[in-house]
Design a protein that fits this description.
27 strands; Immunoglobulin-like; 33% helix; alpha+beta; globular
Length: 659
């Protein structure tokens, strides 16, 4: 079949967020297929998502016929037999109206599109026949369904009133682009552009999307097709952000988004679209506005896990008060309201900061990508990759809801977001620029790619990160080559060293930056990076009054927590720990460097490898200051509530502070 839209770049070389030809982006992507993960932290998680996560989520969708009518349309497209289409359309209507077997009204219709996207990213890493078969069936059905007027009327509505405030077509666009980049096929792209133009005929210059997603999806669709009509529509929808006050207040979004004002997902997804647009079109005023919103959120409204603080009574909305961070942190059920932090927002925050990084090459953004990835995001995903938190809690008395296959049963958006995001993780490891190569994340992996000059390069990482801070990077080159190698030195690391072929670099290595090594590189050169990982006690900006006298424990990029099942002799609510040597405490009269800072080390806590616990973790063990020196145990926060329910705390008492 001949495509009506000509892709703008070779599909095999496109990144998940493809700034390859974006004129205002500093960094260029390295595609997923150029990265091979080795045995380490992330490969088992991608494997589990591929073999269990995608199919377990699909089982839940099938319980209520939420995949209908796409399988019926796929059968018709393959055989010409349309006898099942009427039944498939009826199943779709019944699911939307709540007349299905579970009597749950499934208003979020983008889950199937997110499953397609998950399959497409997975296939960019490796060819899995079961995943390919599933993706082919779903895409065949989606394309065929979009040629049926009755389907279009019921799926979207005549004015897209059934499209979850344009969230559904946004995910359709993302799925179509990912499918194209996995297969090179364009028939799904054609459908996506047709839907975009139908939306433009109704919304352009008139109204905005209530559920952001479509903005960044349209920019990516433009990157894949080169269709300037699509970019124009994205520009229109991003215009909504210009109307938002940069300081999130009680009325942010009021009048435009009904129940979506201050919504945590809206406040991360819409800025993603703005950042994507800025990579394509210079707009200093929009950039100034976007960075002001980012500063407001990160300087006083962001938790240590990288997720946004929320309102007490409206748990899906960003707090409108800076340093009001206590909701959901010292207990998850208050006034019969379950307080937690949404999985979709964690994904949104990672995606937003990744786009800001592409624009600026500023390590501030990649630090936040890492913190949210390892702590905020992963805490939602069960180790079996079959169950998820819709809201993950930062404290519990054992009264937290367990993870489940659907997250929020009316939408299922959070598990769908997890299964599509996990296989995209390799795309966050590396970037290129005009001057060289950038390393953002560390894990056992191999990159087979090229520099901006076209010079092939192989980069291999050997490490036990995040459990150990030693990283060995080996370069493979066909000939000696001049380029800059930029290594991220995490902001959490107070003492880092870098050496090339055993010789220490001659410039200071500073935390929270990219350390640039400029030289002529040769085949077999080895760069060693040593990131010291002491156990540290984190404090919060003194303006967050509820956190004074409280400490949280971190080691490397990982936040730790105390779970009751590991501490049966005490109440985790009553734990107190003694800080050690001061590191970077908050000082009166000095502007804080960050919302959370390492106040001191914890020299009496030791790290212990436990390969058979929770999928293999490093635990921390040390004395409680208030329990006659009795030992207490901390586990990585991301691994909590994967055993029997029990109480959990992150923030515990500082024994040197008055209660």
């Amino acid at each position: 079949m001949t495509s009506r839209h000509t892709p703008t770049a070779p599909w095999r070389s496109a990144g998940a967020v493809d700034t390859t030809h974006s004129p205002h982006a500093m960094l260029r992507p390295v595609p997923i297929r150029a990265i091979t993960l080795g045995d380490g932290f992330w490969k088992p998680r991608l494997d589990a998502n591929r073999t269990a996560g995608i199919f377990a989520f699909l089982e839940w969708l099938d319980e209520d016929d939420q995949v209908a009518p796409f399988r019926e349309f796929a059968h018709f497209a393959r055989t010409g037999d349309d006898s099942a289409i009427a039944s498939g359309l009826d199943k779709m209507r019944r699911a939307f109206d709540g007349r299905n077997s579970q009597r749950i009204r499934h208003t979020w219709r983008a889950t199937v599109m997110e499953v397609v996207e998950a399959c497409a990213y997975t296939l960019q890493s490796e060819d899995d026949p079961a995943i390919r078969k599933l993706m082919d069936e779903l895409v065949t059905g989606i394309v065929a369904a979009h040629k049926n007027e009755e389907f279009l009327t019921w799926y979207y509505g005549e004015h897209f009133e059934h499209s979850y405030q344009l969230g559904t077509p946004g995910h359709l666009f993302q799925a179509a682009v990912a499918h194209h980049r996995a297969t090179g096929e364009t028939h799904f792209l054609d459908i996506a552009v047709d839907v975009a133009m139908a939306i433009a005929s109704i919304f352009e210059g008139k109204a905005f999307a209530e559920h952001p997603c479509i903005e960044m999806a349209l920019v990516e669709l433009y990157r894949a097709t080169g269709d300037h009509r699509v970019l124009r529509l994205a520009t229109h929808f991003v215009g909504l952000l210009r109307e938002q006050d940069p300081i999130i207040g009680p009325d942010t979004g009021e009048g435009h988004w009904r129940h979506f004002n201050r919504h945590v997902v809206r406040q991360t997804y819409l800025p993603c679209g703005a950042a994507d647009l800025l990579a394509e079109k210079s707009d200093p005023e929009l950039w100034k506005h976007l960075t002001a919103i980012w500063r407001d959120m990160t300087s006083g409204k962001l938790h240590i896990i990288g997720q946004l603080a929320t309102d007490y009574w409206l748990g899906e909305r960003v707090t409108n008060e800076p340093f009001a961070l206590s909701v959901g942190v010292f207990g998850c059920v208050q006034d019969h309201i379950i307080h937690g932090f949404e999985l979709c927002e964690a994904v949104g925050n990672i995606m937003w900061n990744w786009r800001m990084l592409a624009l600026t090459a500023d390590a501030t953004y990649s630090d936040l990508v890492e913190r949210t990835l390892y702590n905020g995001f992963l805490s939602h995903v069960a180790l079996d990759h079959r169950n998820y938190h819709y809201l993950s809690m930062m404290a519990s008395d054992g009264d937290h809801p367990p993870r489940n296959p659907w997250g929020n049963p009316t939408t299922g958006c959070c598990p769908a977001n997890a299964v599509r995001f996990i296989p995209s993780v390799p795309s966050y490891f590396f970037s290129t620029s005009d001057d060289g190569l950038w390393v953002h994340l560390y894990d056992n992996c191999r990159m087979d790619w090229h520099l901006a000059t076209g010079q092939p390069i192989v980069l291999t990482q050997k490490t036990r990160y995040p459990w150990d801070g030693q990283v060995a990077i080996t370069l493979g080159l066909e000939e000696p080559t001049d380029f800059d190698l930029h290594l991220r030195i995490p902001g959490w690391c107070e003492n880092a060293t870098v050496a090339v072929n055993g010789c220490a670099v001659d410039r200071p290595v500073e935390r929270g930056t990219y350390h640039c090594i400029q030289r002529t590189w040769s085949d077999g050169d080895v760069i060693t990076l040593d990131l010291a990982m002491p156990v540290v006690a984190m404090e919060t900006d003194p303006r967050a009054a509820d956190f004074q006298g409280k400490l949280a424990v971190m080691r490397g990029p990982l936040l730790y927590c105390f779970e009751g099942i590991d501490n049966p002799e005490c109440s985790v609510r009553a734990i107190s720990i003694a800080p050690g040597t001061r590191i970077r405490p908050f000082e009166a009269g000095t502007e804080p460097e960050a919302l959370f800072q390492p106040a001191s080390d914890l020299p009496h806590f030791t790290s212990i490898e436990q390969p058979d616990l929770l999928g293999g973790v490093t635990i921390l063990r040390g004395p409680a200051a208030n329990l006659d020196g009795s030992e207490i145990t901390a586990i990585p926060y991301y691994a909590w509530t994967n055993r029997d329910p029990s109480a959990m705390r992150i923030w515990v008492d500082n024994s040197e502070s008055a209660t």
